[in-house]
Amino acid sequence: MTHKTVRIGALTRVEGEGALVVHARDGRIAGLELRIYEPPRFFEAMLRGRGHTEPPDITARVCGICPVAYQMSACQAIEAACGAEVTGPLRDLRLLLYYGEWIESHALHVYLLHAPDFLGYDSGVAMAADHRDLVERGLELKKAGNELVTAIGGRPIHPVNVRVGGFYRAPSRRELAPAAERLRRARDHALATVAWVAGFDFPDVEHDYRFLALRHPSEYAILSGAVGTGDGRAEPAGFAVADWSDHVIEEQVPHSTALHARLDGETGYLTGPLARYALNSARLSPLAREAAAAAGLGPVCRNPYRAIVVRAVEIVHACDEALRLIDGYAEPERPCVPVEPRPGVGHGASEAPRGTLYHRYRLDDGGLVAEADIVPPTAQNQARIEADLRDLLGPRLTLPEDELAALCEKAIRNHDPCISCSAHFLDLRVDHG
Amino acid sequence: MPRLAVWKFASCDGCQLTFLDCEDELLSVAARVEIAYFLEASSAPGPGPYDLSLVEGSITTPEDLERIRHVRRVSKRLVTIGACATAGGIQALRDFADVREFAAVVYARPDYIATLDRSTPIAAHVPVDFELRGCPPDKHQLLEVISAFLAGRRPVVPAHSVCVECKARGNACVMVAHGTPCLGPVTQAGCGALCPAFNRGCYGCFGPMESPNHASLNHWMRELGMSTPELVRIYRTYHATAEPFRRAAEEAQGFEEGAG
Ligand code: SF4
Ligand code: SF4
Asked: What Pfam families would the database entry show (chain A) (predicted)?
């Protein structure tokens, strides 16, 4: 009997910290665990007793790379609990802010974290030594996103201008002008990015994913919508965000390190760019659709390595839509709608760059948070990432360990796992057999 | 070339992301230092010792208690960045609660969780050469700190309150002009008075300034309609265990008891 354990001590170029342990016995995988040793921070417990206006700022601190996603899901859940709705120009401003986060987060992942895998570098900085122009283009793109978030939110990490009901102050047209200027260049950079990454050498892999992403009647859903599920072949099924917990159940598995989310009783579904694209590609902006077609994506993409192409297409869409919204922007009469607290439960979901982020709050008689539930994308993808790794490793167990480790890291990075966001991840000792 | 390391403890990654958000300066900084250890940005971690270690995050697990000592041993200079590393961060709210109860709220099997009862700043465990404030820190301040240490001098970071920045920026005082409660008078400058520029009161994300007069501020916050629980909550958020904010919250509670 031969034993072999592949360990990746610390995952790199991902948000947060994690490790992978694989046990092989007689040439077969006996156990595989993506191990997350991010210390638990207990957000859901800390939120209890806070005022109904507080979760957007507090939950932003779950993740520095997608704080806007947390602010948007939190605001919408609380507004739903209080019977308020943010529409019209205020909703457009929220979308704009969110597009900014999408652009900077995707540009960071594509250029600094993911592309080095395809070009054979350890980091974006190392890549810059040979491809300075490319890295500079990536940084410019990222900066365009950050400037948009800054123009509306005050700063790119943990923006200060978001509140339940809307904003503290709506930006003037003049304040958005420089961001628009930069976005026009960014849109060209984004198109060039799609063409660039589409030419990478992708492993020939397809997985039969079950996808989950928000769907909206007229938009490529980011800010809001109903939950859609499906395999990208048949018309997607769907349910309302308020019914989330009837369909998605998180389980703590004793011999696993993380909560595994099950969708309608099945484990291992995928949320994130591939899911959004599979369920919504027809609703991308015309320019983004063209770019996708030119990149050879087709209406559904099941190759996880090509997620980088989908991300690039999503950057085009975000730049394009942001410009359209800025062009049509008229300062709203008031920066927010009143949201009076009342006892009740509210649900909110939006598409973080890494996938669907669900929040639920129960407010008590005094308008304070009595219960909070947060389901971040990485916790949902955890089981599916492990399945990808099993498929990858199964036939390759005889390869040298350092090669295997490098392959696994790449396969994990396809999903841009944001481990800090995984508020639920555990520090668990595993029996190494 | 001086060797730089970036370390992460319990945190949201926002502070180290601030470094990657220096889009215009990133490549020129990278030309002047060797980024020897930065897991979020590079898959080729190099061994120590390091000339400058930037540390993000607070200490919340038994392993991290050990790891921070290791980081100190391999670092010539150690600078903490952000509220988590300098004050315990938002996760320090556990200090006012029973961490086991917290774990039970979040996890079905809290017994799987190895965690400490408290979330402590880095300086509680090892000597720290400089503490940079902010949740997240301001990127210009971060660049100043890095260049100062590379040049072998102390960073120039103001110790005055956000109020001074409001005046410098020409913001109308949100307390005087709109009657909005604001922690600006007791909060350390650095953000450029961001919240007041958006018609919002400061919520203290840069932590307490050097010698805050919270008794006077508490009086004004009450005048503006803040209740005791609201006052306690605003101090107990991102810097709950930083001494001046801890005392300010306790004083607010004491006021209530004294009145009752
Ligand atoms: S100080 Fe704030 S921005 Fe920095 S890691 Fe902690 S929560 Fe994130
Ligand atoms: S005004 Fe206060 S809360 Fe707002 S960013 Fe500055 S220090 Fe942070």
From this structure: NiFeSe_Hases
